[in-house]
Amino acid sequence: MRDGRTMSWRSPLALVRDALHGQRARERELRSLVSNLPYEGLGKGKLPNRFFSSNTIKTTKYSLLTFIPINLFEQFHRLANIYFVGLAILNFIPVVNAFQPEVALIPICVILALTALKDAWEDFRRYQSDRKVNNTPCSIYSRREKQFLERRWKDVQVGDFVKVVCNEIVPADLLLLCSSDPNGVCHIETANLDGETNLKQRTVVSGLCTMDRGFEPESFNSIVVCEKPNDNLNHFKCFVEKPNKEKLGAGIESLLLRGCTVRNTDHAVGFVVYAGHETKSMLNNSGSRSKRSKLERKLNIDVFFCVILLFAMCLVGSVGHYIWLESLTGSPPYLTPDSRSNSLASFHMFFTMIILLQILIPISLYLSIELVKIGQIFFIINDVDLYDEETDSRMQCRALNITEDLGQIDYIFSDKTGTLTENKMVFRRCSIMGTEFPHKENAIRLAVLDEPEAEEEIIFNHRLQSAQTGWSLEAEDVTSVDTSRHSRSKVVGMAQSDVAFSSPLETEVIPDQNLVRQISRAESSSRRGGSRRMDPYLDFFLALAICNTVVVSMATARRRRACVSSHSSQTNNPLEILSNLVKKASSFIQRKSTRIRTQSQDPVIDSVRMESTADTNGVSQSDRPAAAAAGSEDLYYEAESPDEAALVYAARAYGFVLLARTPNNVAVRLPSGQVLDFEVLDTLTFDSNRKRMSVLVRHPITKECVLYTKGADYAIMELLGTPYAEHLSENQKNIASDTQHHLDSYAKEGLRTLCIAKKVVSEDVYRSWLVNRKSALAAIDNKEELVMDTAVQMETNLTLLGATGIEDRLQESVPDTTVALREAGIHVWVLTGDKPETAVNIGYACRLLEEEDLLINMSCKNKVTCTSSLDCNLEEVRRYDEDLLNVDTMPSISLVIDGHTLTMALSPDLRDRFVDLAKRCRTVLCCRVTPLQKSEVVKLIREKLKVMTLAVGDGANDVNMIQAADVGVGISGQEGMQAVMASDFAISRFKHLKKLLLVHGHWCYTRLANMIIYFFYKNVAYVNLLFWYQFYCGFTGTAMIDYWLMIFFNLFFTSTPPIMFGIFDKDVSAEVLLGVPELYRTGQGKGEYNFLTFWISILDAFYQSLVCFFVPYWAYKDSDVDIFTFGTPMNTVSLFTILLHLSIEIKSWTVVHWIIMLGSVGLYFGVTLFYSAICVTCNPPSNPYWIFESQMGDPMFYLICTISTVVALLPRYTFHVLKNSISPSPLLQGRELDRMDPSTRDQWIREWRGFRGGGGGQVKRYQQSTPPSPTQETPVDFLPEFLNDDEIPDDDFSLNVTTHQSPVLT
């Protein structure tokens, strides 16, 4: 044990008492923790915090002793396993057994053993991971050694003092008590927890130690009171009670979470509050998600039908046995004398028949489904088209059992920001004091960046140029120079960036010259006036630079965020290579000359000017953080959101450079080069209720307490009152109304809007408010509410400074993806927190909305109005639907509804009407919605319409929606990985959703559906051979096939082909599925696996079993062959029939298919020949010795096999030929396209889509006529009837691609 601690013997009563005390201690809402140092060396039983979890983690489920019982217990949670074990046990009862008891155990034992091996391997990997983590080194303070000693993570206990150094992972949840940073700051990276790579600041608990004498763990005699462990990564309630009873509040800002990495900090010391499985990271480690797919639910119903069918067949056998016994006049010599009555014998025969016909329930189906899904997932995650080169990330499958649901989606609910858009915020426009500055030059730069220059290699210079920190008022042509320089950049998103939100697209802003002159005049007038009161224009940009949580780091302290591979597109054409070299040379010369001209025109702010002494207005230079002395070009900003980064870079472009940030100070350099060092009095962080954040600072010039606030426009405007409020002056009213007008125009352009405001707070008000603030921060109960109340108390009567418009650009190929999804019959909804105007603009941009759409806009102030609006709109839509004249002329309907109206529409009395209206709309945009409303909408549509739903998002606010949907998809974008961690599948771009659903979703569903149907068919066809034989053996439960061969038949001979079928089969190629999205509709609704297809396959199995039984029966009738000579041809015919049946169903043959199919036949003949040659007394009294060898020498055997197989498969073959010739399905027509030459196929798809308005056109409903054929060799006919987008068909729409070829079999 650690530090020489030894274990002493303790009585059982003491152990029980400690266990009860520990249980009570762990269940308390509050925990009181003290230092372990005074108790060092006394043994674990003497530690005051011994009742809490140690830091050892154990994620394994088994041990060597418990593996077999626990694993069997888990496997027996499956009713199918219990069923087969019960039958195996039943077979040990002599009066009902059908096989040798030991033989009956083999199938279920094989299945249980294979599953146990899989579970054991997975658990062993978990054990290796646990051992590696538990033995990771760390530093724990020892009172005996008076220093930090190297220990292991497993040695850490609650109450220990742990030291972490730069780039080290935190071993437990630590309350930060000391940091090497003089300002008490520790920078951490939480990528291991939430995927966010931007730095976060953690501050030491104030008031515990002073920096002059440092922190001494032995002197720590306070009590740490914290809440019970929970999984909330963003909240932590705690206070430290000093010996004098003074309480110091602490929250999540002082907690280092286990799994975080310390960055940019030499070392930090923390007090362990949670360890091991009680840490927040471990409480969030829930492992893989487990869901039941729609196909699996349908499968369970069909298994129940098979159970009913089995019982019916067994009942027939029982009654038949009774009738046969009653028909006997005496006891036949071949029957053992039995004292049982005929009724009892027939009752026993019922159970014997269950044992004989047990394989009617497919024992290996569930295991086969798991193997097929693993194979499908392998191909999905290794699809190169789903790999994102920029982020070096590929598709992730986090839920392993719902891949087939991807092929049945009816509704998609999507977030907007970061999902449809890049989440790369670009500063576009601003309004200050009612005056709008359009930044036309910057708009030109962004337009140039959008122009494709595919063959030009762009080299980005990440070091910020001087034009971003200073600008020339005299040089009017700087804009054109900058524009020409920026025009050399193309797809800036592909540039490698080391810091989040720091691509050139986001960081470079060309200032508006009118605003530049306005700022210059403001600075000049402030200097001449001598009062040094800040001008509103200066205040606006100070607010942009100060009001945020951006972390400033030096170039030497940066971390690499992601490694982006270089351009992979290269050419081997010498002419193209020479052309590229010429272009690169001219581009380099032009960039160099541009840089020289720019530097000659722009003023340079050198370091000497930065280091000037304090001026007469009291701007302190000595107290300024060290980073302020560095050149701004060496600074890098790490923001938690792209909005903050965009505003900071915009302020930087105008010369307001954020130089450094500590918990107590913020340094900003003005355009003149003067540095202002603001004292931070408090930060009112952003929350989803207030929709804003504020920073309270002491101005270094005026010494006033100033509150800078930024937030959503409606949240800020409410704090000003309405634009025409009585208490506002006339000037303020004009500013507010003009700004609101600008905000509305920004929203119509699709820009994200923020309002900027300020407030001067008197000293008396501040002191009074500070008392309440400290009390709220030290509270445990209702801490969040109290803290928010203090923020709301301060954020009143604000003065509006202006507003900003930030562009969030659409991701690549979003319009094409949304159009394809709509053509596939999927309804796409957007649930966003943005304004309706912004959402509508994005809707048109990504083609969710079309110009000719009928747009219903619902924005109601009360429930009465909402009810009336719902009724009127619903009546209007119904009237159009019922009018036959409007079938082909009615425009598509789209609905836009805001969050307040949605709250009323989701009320119990209105939700049915809302769903009725929404289901008639092609697209629904829900604006200003909260995360909770997103999940409520998804649940409502899923439950009311009984449809398959998919939710896709990229942020923490999308987690509820993702978890509420049948399938959750997370996008690993700019807002961390919380959405990914809560999702079933993870992608890096919205465009990947197209192939994921239309191709992989379709393949996964059709493969698995057809495999399950085939499994049922295979088992029913085989077991019925035994059933038909009972009619000729008195229903005695006798089998005409050797028991071992029967077992081998299902376990080996016919088990691999259906698995191969479920993994590799492709009914249509990916190119055709992407080119004709309508093919996806075949999986929606009931899909291919439905009641009809299931029972047709069962009836076909009955027919084929009749043929396979009676053809050999009639061939050997009245002969003297023995029972196994009679049964062996049936077994062989059944194998050929089952495998050839599968061959008819296979749509794409590959080498793997041929190997598996021929290998199964070869394995059957090899094993059967070997078994017949060595088995002399394997199955007494009848033995299969040399039976198969004799059969293969008999011509009758080959004749029986040929005739039986042909007759058995002829109806299915004929049905496929007639169906594919008379009424070909869309999938068959898709396969016809696959048979074309690729160029011809692509031309056909382009012409067809252009004719019906797809692809580059609009998705409309057409009465189609025959367009020109793409080639004379391949004429193409179009049938007029296509599906409406609002309908979900089964299989009744047509492409009608016909070629001059013979009928094609599918």
From TrEMBL:
<dbReference type="GO" id="GO:0140351">
    <property type="term" value="F:glycosylceramide flippase activity"/>
</dbReference>
<feature type="transmembrane region" description="Helical">
    <location>
        <begin position="1094"/>
        <end position="1116"/>
    </location>
</feature>
<protein>
    <recommendedName>
        <fullName>Phospholipid-transporting ATPase</fullName>
        <ecNumber>7.6.2.1</ecNumber>
    </recommendedName>
</protein>
<dbReference type="Pfam" id="PF13246">
    <property type="entry name" value="Cation_ATPase"/>
</dbReference>
<keyword id="KW-1133">Transmembrane helix</keyword>
<feature type="transmembrane region" description="Helical">
    <location>
        <begin position="537"/>
        <end position="557"/>
    </location>
</feature>
<feature type="transmembrane region" description="Helical">
    <location>
        <begin position="344"/>
        <end position="367"/>
    </location>
</feature>
<dbReference type="InterPro" id="IPR018303">
    <property type="entry name" value="ATPase_P-typ_P_site"/>
</dbReference>
<keyword id="KW-0472">Membrane</keyword>
<dbReference type="Pfam" id="PF16209">
    <property type="entry name" value="PhoLip_ATPase_N"/>
</dbReference>
<feature type="transmembrane region" description="Helical">
    <location>
        <begin position="1154"/>
        <end position="1176"/>
    </location>
</feature>
<dbReference type="GO" id="GO:0000287">
    <property type="term" value="F:magnesium ion binding"/>
</dbReference>
<dbReference type="InterPro" id="IPR032631">
    <property type="entry name" value="P-type_ATPase_N"/>
</dbReference>
<feature type="transmembrane region" description="Helical">
    <location>
        <begin position="1196"/>
        <end position="1215"/>
    </location>
</feature>
<dbReference type="GO" id="GO:0045332">
    <property type="term" value="P:phospholipid translocation"/>
</dbReference>
<feature type="binding site">
    <location>
        <position position="710"/>
    </location>
    <ligand>
        <name>ATP</name>
    </ligand>
</feature>
<feature type="binding site">
    <location>
        <position position="416"/>
    </location>
    <ligand>
        <name>ATP</name>
    </ligand>
</feature>
<keyword id="KW-0256">Endoplasmic reticulum</keyword>
<feature type="active site" description="4-aspartylphosphate intermediate">
    <location>
        <position position="415"/>
    </location>
</feature>
<feature type="binding site">
    <location>
        <position position="958"/>
    </location>
    <ligand>
        <name>Mg(2+)</name>
    </ligand>
</feature>
<dbReference type="Pfam" id="PF16212">
    <property type="entry name" value="PhoLip_ATPase_C"/>
</dbReference>
<feature type="binding site">
    <location>
        <position position="958"/>
    </location>
    <ligand>
        <name>ATP</name>
    </ligand>
</feature>
<keyword id="KW-0547">Nucleotide-binding</keyword>
<feature type="binding site">
    <location>
        <position position="415"/>
    </location>
    <ligand>
        <name>Mg(2+)</name>
    </ligand>
</feature>
<keyword id="KW-0067">ATP-binding</keyword>
<feature type="region of interest" description="Disordered">
    <location>
        <begin position="1250"/>
        <end position="1276"/>
    </location>
</feature>
<feature type="transmembrane region" description="Helical">
    <location>
        <begin position="79"/>
        <end position="97"/>
    </location>
</feature>
<dbReference type="GO" id="GO:0005886">
    <property type="term" value="C:plasma membrane"/>
</dbReference>
<dbReference type="InterPro" id="IPR023299">
    <property type="entry name" value="ATPase_P-typ_cyto_dom_N"/>
</dbReference>
<feature type="domain" description="P-type ATPase N-terminal">
    <location>
        <begin position="51"/>
        <end position="103"/>
    </location>
</feature>
<feature type="transmembrane region" description="Helical">
    <location>
        <begin position="103"/>
        <end position="121"/>
    </location>
</feature>
<dbReference type="GO" id="GO:0016887">
    <property type="term" value="F:ATP hydrolysis activity"/>
</dbReference>
<feature type="binding site">
    <location>
        <position position="686"/>
    </location>
    <ligand>
        <name>ATP</name>
    </ligand>
</feature>
<feature type="binding site">
    <location>
        <position position="957"/>
    </location>
    <ligand>
        <name>ATP</name>
    </ligand>
</feature>
<keyword id="KW-1278">Translocase</keyword>
<feature type="binding site">
    <location>
        <position position="832"/>
    </location>
    <ligand>
        <name>ATP</name>
    </ligand>
</feature>
<dbReference type="InterPro" id="IPR008250">
    <property type="entry name" value="ATPase_P-typ_transduc_dom_A_sf"/>
</dbReference>
<feature type="binding site">
    <location>
        <position position="928"/>
    </location>
    <ligand>
        <name>ATP</name>
    </ligand>
</feature>
<feature type="binding site">
    <location>
        <position position="417"/>
    </location>
    <ligand>
        <name>Mg(2+)</name>
    </ligand>
</feature>
<keyword id="KW-0479">Metal-binding</keyword>
<feature type="binding site">
    <location>
        <position position="644"/>
    </location>
    <ligand>
        <name>ATP</name>
    </ligand>
</feature>
<dbReference type="InterPro" id="IPR023214">
    <property type="entry name" value="HAD_sf"/>
</dbReference>
